[in-house]
């Protein structure tokens, strides 16, 4: 079962068995995809167990839906940085570490940290989501990371929404991943909940540069919530 999930091998492995020109054509951000998708959809449950992701607190439903979308976008050739998958679980309180970045070759959790939601999405819990400008709410669904820039929030990462009517206005709304001082244990201790953004998934200042550099340039990001009102609308999850 796991052999399909480990299909993204280091380039050095493939070069030992094939010629350089053909390897270069199949290169994606340092890894070579030997299959049309990282894993069959019916392997997701087994992979969750094999990678012991429950121990990290990552919800099984969030993981399975994230991998389904990852495979869909991979087949559509929309993912350039195939080696990582980011999952933000908005089913958890903001005081919990609800951002997970997974190494899709080994199953290792590279990052598990705090992440903010939009100020109009809720206080401790994000319960209300929007795709509209000036809503100051988070959007759910699948995104692809783009390039970086330095703006009002410092070093930041642009996000492109992949789901029409759900998050496809992310670029126009300037929904980006950035660091923020209000995303910290100190803020939680002082206020009882995490600081909130204008809709961006903001992360701790101490980690934001490493996180951005890990997932920039074409990786998949999934903002999850267990409520069915998103999953029943998502064409990606219904594919």
Secondary-structure blueprint:
Elements: E1 8-10, H1 11-15, H2 20-25, E2 27-28, E3 31-33, H3 44-50, H4 60-75, E4 84-89, E5 99-103, E6 109-113, E7 141-151, E8 154-161, E9 176-180, H5 185-191, E10 202-204, H6 208-215, E11 220-224, H7 228-231
Give structural notes.
The chain is an alpha+beta fold and 239 residues long. The protein has one domain: L,D-transpeptidase catalytic domain-like (Beta Barrel). It is 22% helix and 23% strand. It is built from 7 helices and 11 strands. Strands 6-5-4-11-7-8-9-10 form an 8-stranded mixed beta sheet. The protein has a 3-stranded antiparallel beta sheet with strand order 1-3-2. A hairpin with a 2-residue loop joins β2 and β3. The longest helix has 16 residues. The protein is globular, with a radius of gyration of 17 Å. It starts with 7 loop residues before the first strand and ends in an 8-residue tail after the last helix. The N terminus is likely disordered.
Number of strands: 11
Indicate the low-confidence ranges by residue numbers: 1-38
Shape: globular
Number of helices: 7
Q: Helix fraction? A: 10-25%
Assess the beta-strand content as a share of residues: 15-25%
The CATH architecture: Beta Barrel
**Whole-number count of domains:** 1
CATH 4th-level superfamily: L,D-transpeptidase catalytic domain-like
């Amino acid at each position: 079962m796991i052999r399909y999930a480990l299909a993204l091998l280091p380039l050095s492995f493939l070069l030992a068995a094939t010629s350089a020109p053909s390897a270069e054509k199949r290169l994606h951000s340092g890894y070579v995809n030997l299959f049309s998708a990282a894993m069959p959809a019916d392997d997701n449950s087994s992979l969750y167990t094999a990678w012991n992701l429950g121990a990290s607190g990552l919800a099984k439903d969030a993981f399975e839906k994230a991998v389904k979308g990852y495979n869909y976008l991979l087949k559509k050739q929309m993912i350039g940085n195939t080696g990582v998958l980011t999952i933000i679980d908005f089913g958890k309180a903001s005081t919990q570490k609800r951002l997970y970045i997974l190494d899709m070759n080994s199953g290792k959790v590279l990052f598990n940290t705090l992440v903010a939601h939009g100020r109009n999405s809720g206080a401790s819990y994000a319960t209300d989501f929007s795709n509209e400008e000036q809503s100051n709410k988070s959007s759910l669904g699948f995104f692809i990371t783009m390039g970086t820039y330095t703006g009002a929030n410092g070093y930041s990462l642009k996000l492109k929404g992949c789901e029409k009517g759900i998050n496809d206005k992310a670029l126009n709304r300037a929904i980006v991943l950035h660091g923020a001082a209000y995303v910290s244990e100190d803020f939680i201790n002082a206020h009882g909940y995490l600081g909130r953004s204008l809709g961006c998934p903001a992360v701790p200042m101490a980690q934001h540069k490493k996180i951005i550099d890990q997932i920039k340039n074409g990786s998949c990001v999934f903002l999850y919530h267990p409520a069915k009102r998103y999953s029943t609308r998502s064409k990606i999850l219904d594919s």
